[in-house]
Amino acid sequence: MADLGNPKNTIEILNKYKFVFQKKFGQNFLIDTHVLDKIIHAADITKDDFVLEIGPGIGTLTQYLCEHAREVVAVEIDRMLIPILSETLSGYSNVTVINEDILKIDLNTLVQERNGGRPIKVVANLPYYITTPIIMELFERHIPLINVTVMVQKEVADRMQAVPGTKDYGALSLAVQYYAEPYIAANVPPNCFMPRPNVGSAVIRLTLYQNPRITVKDEALMFRLIRASFNQRRKTLLNGLNNSKELNFTKEEILNAIREEGLSDNVRGETLTLEQFAGLANRLSPNR
């Protein structure tokens, strides 16, 4: 089986099938064996693991996953890649390719049927335009997960692990850190891909908390508060929440909650920790 981590083999298979890169799918295929090894290592793939791969492309990373995991299910949206995957993965009996949009699949049922409902590992070289929706979909649906190891744009990885008061800190940082512990495993330059993207990338591993790190009465309300406070970064937290169409509290109720949480009247949302947002949500939820 030709190792697709070798650029020569990648070019050969693309030419054979006259494959045309689709801009709408944000396709950038990995052509660096060191990076592939780092992804496998970061995800800690073992022979006990069921792995869901999102966006296998021509099967470069899939081959490595098949070598290390018990079973792999790879979900690919581009039907033009399905015949290529049939060839590049023909040597493996532990892989299933599904030609579907990952956002339209019932993943909880898939995990139940294919892994008895036990937690899985997710690995993906994600298209940059859809990184956040896919990751949030995995978390918010409470799919049983051990970890999610993804190749993302470098600046997105930085945002995922940012801390309060920094320029990268925002709603994505809080959402990711509510569900998982982020760890940047590798920075990946553009020349590791074909075609070369215009930006640097990073491999980030998100290790799911088996028990919530914080308790909040109303998770959905907390995320509405977070979104509202970052929608208008320059405004105070009080004004940001008061101006939000997603929230229906009076200015007085918001101010009281801010004070009860021990925060100043003119605090900005970007300085609050996840615990403080949870505290605010808990104080406001009985008023709904």
Could you walk me through the main structural features you see in this protein, from its secondary elements to its overall organization?
With 288 residues, this protein is α/β, with parallel strands linked by helices. It folds into two domains: 7-208, Vaccinia Virus protein VP39 (Rossmann fold); 219-287, Helicase, Ruva Protein, domain 3. Helix content is 39%, strand content 18%. The strands form two sheets. Strands 4-3-2-5-6-9-7 form a seven-stranded mixed sheet, with helices on both faces. It has a two-stranded antiparallel sheet with strand order 1-8. Helix 3 links the parallel strand 2 (50-54) and strand 3. Helix 6 (131-140) packs parallel to helix 8 (171-179), helix 9 (219-231) crosses helix 10 and helix 9 crosses helix 12. The longest helix is centred in the last third of the chain and has 13 residues, at 219-231. The protein is elongated and about 65 Å long.
Keywords:
288 residues; alpha/beta; Rossmann fold; Helicase, Ruva Protein, domain 3; 2 domains; seven-stranded mixed sheet; two-stranded antiparallel ribbon; 12 helices
Strand and helix map with partners:
Elements: H1 7-16, E1 29-30, H2 33-43, E2 50-54, H3 60-68, E3 71-76, H4 82-88, E4 95-99, H5 107-115, E5 120-125, H6 131-140, E6 145-153, H7 154-160, H8 171-179, E7 180-188, E8 193-194, E9 201-208, H9 219-231, H10 237-243, H11 251-260, H12 274-284
Parallel strand pairs: 2-3, 2-5, 3-4, 5-6
Antiparallel strand pairs: 1-8, 6-9, 7-9
Helix pairs in contact: 6-8, 9-10, 9-12, 10-11
